Amino acid sequence: MGRDRAGSGMTEPTDKPGILQRLRDRHPRLDHLLRAYQRFAKQKGTFFAAGLTYYTIFALFPLLMVSFAAAGYILAGRPELLNTIDGRIRSAVAGELGQQLVDLINSAIDARASVGLIGLATAAWAGLGWMWHLREALSEMWEQHIEPDGYVRTKLSDLAAMVGTFLVIMVTVALSALGQRRPMAAVLRWLHIPDYSVFDEIFRGVSVLVSVLVTWLLFTWMIARLPRESVHFTTSVRAGLMAALGFEIFKQVGSIYLQTVVRSPAGAAFGPVLGLMVFAFVTWSLLLFSTAWAATSAPEDPRDRHVDPPPPAVISPRILVEEGLRPRQTVAAMAAGAVGALTLSRLFRRRR
Q1: Distance (Å, rounded) from C-alpha 290 to C-alpha 142?
Q2: Distance from CA of residue 4 to its chain's centroid?
Q3: How far apart are CA 233 and CA 29, in angstroms?
Q4: What is the average pLDDT across 241-262?
Q5: How far does the signal peptide extend, from start to end residue (predicted)?
Q6: d(CA 60, CA 63)
Q7: Tens of pLDDT, residues 140-171
């Protein structure tokens, strides 16, 4: 199809590639990014991120129960610390309300065993559900369609993955804590190095750097090892770095948001909850999009896989020689002979 130029009668082609396509042809990284977004949208990345946000918030409550039970065991073994807390509560909240808070803490300490058991059971159940959805989401980004091995095997596999992820998270949290200002200051005091004001900016930069490194380790582990079928670790390294950088930027912006929101009474009541939901949703979206980005650049992607040309076609004619006649052919020949004989006999009769 074409479009007539004014007064020339010539046609101008209109099937030229658009601006976006030309940019994709010139910039392979932009094309890679757009293909990753197409995979993310096709495999319902936003849907999985929302589901993971729900399971993350849901799993926090049994973890809080376990934390309260652990705190109850600590306070039960240290009565002087419990008395100090009771005294501070009574001095801060006078009257009957202070006594009710003290009674609530004592009842929680007395029920620490039952609260701990219920919290552990609920945390295990919620954690397995969270891990199942996380592994399914990552497998979808890699387009891994694997038949389940059965309920028991799947749960055992998810349990092992959950324990491994928990250990990796503990290591990353410990490394991230070492990069904060107070541990660094303690190390300087232990090394007998004076605390200069210039160290504040250095500590801040070191803290951000360590946070990016440990988050990089965590995200790379999740992208490479948590799908149903493990992928190449080297393929996930760059994707983990991209997710870690995006997570650090979002974390810095989120801290400014929380400092601004909690200043108002309504923000102090609802801001942390909404902030936690947004934080979880953006984190899972970053992880799944980075996984889709890694999957589009992986050798397993069909567009990046080398396909050999088909072998040349060989034409070999075959000539089949059959001896004798088949039954159908014999009947047809007899019928043709009978018709011919009848026709000839009639012709001879007319001539006579």
Answers
A1: 11
A2: 51
A3: 21
A4: 79
A5: none
A6: 5
A7: 999 887 776 777 788 888 888 888 777 777 77
Question: Strand 2-4 and strand 11-13: pairing?
Answer: antiparallel
Terminal CA-to-CA distance of the chain, rounded, Å?
78
> Cα–Cα distance between 21 and 135 in angstroms, integer?
34
Q: Which two tokens stand for residue 232?
A: 């190449």
| Cα pseudo-dihedral 74, 78, 81, 87, rounded to 10 | 110
CB 276 within 8 A of CB 56: no
Instruction: Specify the length of the chain in residues.
Output: 352
Share of the chain above pLDDT 70, in %: 72
Residue 285: partners with Cβ closer than 8 Å, 6 or more residues away: 45, 46, 49
Q: How far apart are CA 267 and CA 217, in angstroms?
A: 34
Paired with 3 in beta bridges are 12
Instruction: Band the pLDDT of 300: cuts 50, 70, 90.
Output: very low
Phi, psi of 2 (to 5 degrees): -150, 180
Dig out the tokens for 14 from the structure: 């209109």
Tokens of 121: 């059971």
What 3 state SS string does the chain have?
A: CEEECCCCCCEEECCCCCHHHHHHHHCHHHHHHHHHHHHHHHCCHHHHHHHHHHHHHHHHHHHHHHHHHHHHHHHHHCHHHHHHHHHHHHHHCCCHHHHHHHHHHHHHHHCHHHHHHHHHHHHHHHHHHHHHHHHHHHHHHCCCCCCCCCHHHHHHHHHHHHHHHHHHHHHHHHHHHHCCHHHHHHHHHHCCCCCCCHHHHHHHHHHHHHHHHHHHHHHHHHHHHCCCCCCCHHHHHHHHHHHHHHHHHHHHHHHHHHHHHCCCHHHHHHHHHHHHHHHHHHHHHHHHHHHHHHHHHCCCCCCCCCCCCCCCCCCCCCCCCCCCCCHHHHHHHHHHHHHHHHHHHHHHHHHC
The closest of 73, 70, 66 to 125, measured between CA atoms, is 66
